[in-house]
Amino acid sequence: MRYVLLKLSFDGRPYHGWQIQKNALTVQQVLQEALAAVLGEAPPIKGCSRTDAGVHAIEFCVSMPLTGNISCESLVRALNVHLPQSVAVKSCCEVDEDFHARYSVKYKRYLYRIWNSPVRDPFSDGLALHYPVHLDEKSMEEQAQQLIGRHDFSAFCAAGGSVEDKVRNITEYTACRNGDMIELRITADGFLYNMVRIITGTLIDIERGRIPRGSIGEIIESGDRSKAGFTAPPDGLYLEKVIY
Amino acid sequence: MRYVLLKLSFDGRPYHGWQIQKNALTVQQVLQEALAAVLGEAPPIKGCSRTDAGVHAIEFCVSMPLTGNISCESLVRALNVHLPQSVAVKSCCEVDEDFHARYSVKYKRYLYRIWNSPVRDPFSDGLALHYPVHLDEKSMEEQAQQLIGRHDFSAFCAAGGSVEDKVRNITEYTACRNGDMIELRITADGFLYNMVRIITGTLIDIERGRIPRGSIGEIIESGDRSKAGFTAPPDGLYLEKVIY
């Protein structure tokens, strides 16, 4: 039996996230259907994370066993024929039996895109947060440096998650601007429920003076979700890189 | 009477080009409808070019007379409320009475985007040409330098245009790569029917060995459309900049 790692890219707009659900279309479901069409039956597949409805992926990883003789290259080609335009398999490679797309993750990087102009962008509907008031991305990057390190991020976690241990290690936070598009990138060994979206909302609230500058350390220490900022919408969020 | 210049941006996918048509939705139509909703009646508007069905604009210019007391700023805001998500007015400024969005143009720059990867990009459907075989963008840029200058571009003009004078002055051609996305940019004082798309197809055909390297000068001189390459699809084409 071979085991493989598939790397996908998907536009999250048509989907209710990754994980299979009753009565709602998910990326896992369309991938399983494509696998069933190509292989006869879909093997059990493991995704690297549960993305929310409307969240995108530039790189999303899936591990699974692979029976039969199909080559990795042929599998990629055949899956792309069966997948909808909004999902693409970028690569497939063989991995060890004990590799798990989720539990083997060392670091993940998320990108959050903000279209920061008074006028909306026709090309970014559902693909970036439109924020009309000017934001200083270098100031956001500076404020975010207090996030770096191993902390209990309970204050940046939405209710409803089942995870007990809320300690995560954020290793990098960068912000850059490309014309009117701000790109925020965060790397950590793991993320809590809505964590990137709450961090984004908190940084925006700091820029707008709703939360004092320099207070991210205190918010982390408080462990109090109500002290952090709003939850930015899923539109701007992309899983960008998974490091094993 | 005031005269104004509006700068628009639009995703061309839902539209049959700029110019108003019977039985097909165009950008001019939706702009006229928004103007009528805001001003009571739509003034006569002039677009900077006739873009084809499916072609996009990062910057498209429109000139028109403006009656009433509405400020440029309020007009932008009000139009964006009435326009569909795929069209945005970016700015409005007053111009002289003799300004004409089309006839006053000095130079225009078009961008052509090619997603150059064996695997399609879920975010570029209709927004870039997917070309799976590797292209060397620096070689394309080098070949394109023979286009520079004032030439009769009949060989790069589709049949069906009504223009007699086919002499245009191409001032710059650049190519760059951003990961898997190739961006080709061409600046000229004017463009013939399908000219950018035929130039793009010709450069691809040269890279694939279907047209000899170094033959663009001869193709121009021949004036023969059949010697140039295929017409690249509208998906990757963007009007990027208009210089008055």
What order do the helices and strands come in, and which of them pair?
Two copies of one chain form a homodimer.
Chain A: E1 2-10, H1 27-39, E2 46-47, E3 56-66, H2 72-82, E4 87-95, E5 107-115, E6 129-130, H3 137-144, E7 149-152, E8 167-178, E9 181-188, H4 195-207, H5 216-222, E10 237-243
Parallel strand pairs in A: 3-10, 5-6
Antiparallel strand pairs in A: 1-3, 1-4, 2-3, 5-9, 5-10, 7-8, 8-9
Low-confidence parts of chain A: none
User: Which class of secondary structure composition applies to the elements of chain A?
Assistant: alpha+beta
Count of alpha/pi helices of chain A: 5
End-to-end separation of chain A: 22 Å
Give the overall average pLDDT of chain A.
Answer: 96
Short description:
The structure is a homodimer of 244-residue chains. Helix content of chain A is 21%, strand content 30%. The first copy, chain A, is α+β, with helices and mostly antiparallel strands and 244 residues long.
Summarize the structure in words.
2 copies of one chain form a homodimer. Chain A is of the alpha+beta class and 244 residues long. The first copy, chain A, folds into 2 domains: 2-94, 2-Layer Sandwich (Alpha-Beta Plaits); 107-243, Alpha-Beta Plaits (2-Layer Sandwich). Helices cover 21% and strands 30% of the residues of chain A. Chain A contains 5 helices and 10 strands; from the N terminus they run E-H-E-E-H-E-E-E-H-E-E-E-H-H-E. Chain A has helices at 27-39, 72-82, 137-144, 195-207, 216-222, and strands at 2-10, 46-47, 56-66, 87-95, 107-115, 129-130, 149-152, 167-178, 181-188, 237-243. In chain A, strands 1, 2, 3, 4, 5, 6, 7, 8, 9 and 10 form a 10-stranded mixed β-sheet that branches. In chain A, helix 1 packs across helix 2 and helix 3 packs across helix 4 (195-207). The longest helix of chain A is centred in the first third of the chain and has 13 residues, at 27-39. Chain A binds chain B through residues 9-11, 56, 76, 80, 85-91, 119-123, 125, 127, and chain B through 9-11, 56, 76, 80, 85-91, 119-123, 125, 127.
